[in-house]
Amino acid sequence: MRLVMNEPVERMEGPYPRRWWALLVLCLSLLIIVMANTALTVAAPDMTQDLGLTSSDLQWVIDGYTVPYAALMLLLGAIGDKYSRRGALVLGLVVFGAGSVAGSLVDSSTGVIAARAVMGVGAAMIMPATLSLLAATFPRAERAKAIVLWTATAGLAIAAGPLVAGALLENHGWASTFLINVPVAALAIAGAFALVPPSKAAQHGRIDYVGGLLSVLWTGALVYMIIQGPHFGWDAKAVSAAVVAGAGLVAFIAWELRHPRPVLDVRRFLDRGFAGSNLAVALFFLAVFGAFYYLTQHLQFVLGYDPFDTGVRMLPLAGAVFVGSALTGFLTPRLGMKVTVSTGMALGTLALALLTRVDSASGYGDFVAPLVILGVAIGLALSPCTDAIMGAFPESELGVGGAVNDTSLELGGSLGIALLGSVLASSYSSHLADAARGTGLPASALSTAQDSVGAGYAVAHGIGEQAAHAATPQQGAQLGEAARRMADAVGSAFSDAVAHTSLIGAAILAVGTVLVAALLPGRTRERG
Length: 528
Hints:
By secondary structure, the chain is mainly alpha-helical. It is built from 21 helices and no strands. The longest helix has 47 residues, at 473-519. It is globular and about 85 Å long.
C-alpha cells in the first residue's frame, strides 16, 4: 500500500501497518519538548553562575519557553489540520532544534531567553501534532493503548530530563543541555519522513484566523500574568496582562460562538466529560509541575545531591508512571474513566499529603513513597482524560483536539510552578527569618538569603569562607559555628516550606478531585 504525500491517512483501507513505529517517533518528539523544561531545573545553578543571572532572569529563562508554547498551540494545531500534520511536526522539530543550537551559543540572559522562546514556538507545533497524528494513525480500538504509551513517555521525560542533564553537567557546561536536543530532533525528523504517514483533514474549510489570534492573545496574556504576578508582584505589567487575558477570553468566546467554523467550538465545554477531562489534566499538572519544582531543589540543595544523582532519585516517579499506565489500560475499560481518573487524582492528593511530613531530618527515603504514588497517579488519570478529549473532536479537528489537551496541561503546569512556587518562596522567607534569629546574621545578608534556598546556602558558604581566613583561631571558630547554624537554618526553613507548600497543593488537588468526580459521567452515560 503506497502513501501519496498529500493523502490523508484516514483514507487508507485498513490501519497503517507501521503505526507502532510511527508512535515511537511521536513519543521521541514528545520526549524532548518535555525534557526541555525538566532538564533546566538541574542546569539552572550552573547557568546562573556562568551568566550572572538574577532571580528574575532565571525565571524568564524558564518561562520564556512557556509563553509562546501555550499561546500558539491552538492556532498552530488548526493550521496543521488543514495543511499537514506531519509537516507541522517536522517544521516544529526544525525550529526546536534551531532554538537549541542558538541556546548553546549565546552568552547573555537575553540570548538564552530568546532561544528558549524559539524553542517554545517549535514545541507549540510539535505537541498538538504528536496527538493529532496518533489519533489519525491508530484505529479507535487501539487509540487508548497508544495514548497510554504517549502519556507514559511524558512521565518518563519528567524524570529523564534531570538525569540526562545531570550526566552531561558532570563533564560539560550548561550549553550541553541545549545541544542534546539537536541529535534527537534530527533522528525524529528522519523518523517522521520514514515512518509517520502524511496526514491532514479530509475536509477543512477556511481557518478561523481571528479566533486563532484571539486565542494567542488571551492565552499568552494569561500565562504571562500567571508568571509575572506571583513571582514579581502585581505591578502594572501583571495587572495589564490580567485585563488583556480577561478581555481577550470574552472576545474569543463571543467570536467563536458566532463563527460558522470556529477554530474551537467552545460549546464542547458544556459537555461534562470534556470539561471534566480538561480540568483533571490542568489540576494534575498543577500539582505535578509544582511538586517537581520544589522537590528537585530539596534534593540538590538540602540533601546535597549533584544534578546526576538528583535525576537518578527521580526515576521511581518515571517507573511508577509506566505501572499506572498499564493499570489504567486494564481498569478503564472495566470500571470506566470516572473511577480511574478519580482514583488517580485521589492518589496524587495522597502523595502531596505525605510530603507535608518533610522536615529538617528527612532523608531521601522519605520521598520515595510520595514519588511512587504520584507516578502511579499520573499513569492512572491522564491517559483516559487525553483519550476522552481527543475523542470529542472529529477527524478534521484532531490537531485542535491535541492543542486543547496540551494547553490544559501547560496552563496547569504554569499555574502550579507560579502558585506553589510563590507559596514556597513566601514560606521559606518567613521560616528563615524565624530560624536565623540568634545567628547574628546582618539584615542585608538575611535579606539575600531569603531570596532562595540557593542564595541561603551561598550566604552560609560565604560566612564559612570568612572563617577560613579569619585573623584569629577564636574568630574563625565563631564564624565557622555561625556558618553551620546558618546552613542548618536554611535547610530547616526550606524543609518546612516544602511541607507547607505540599499542604496547599494537596488541598487544591483534593478539591479538584471532588469537582472532577462530579463532572465526569459514569459508565452508563459514557456508553450512551
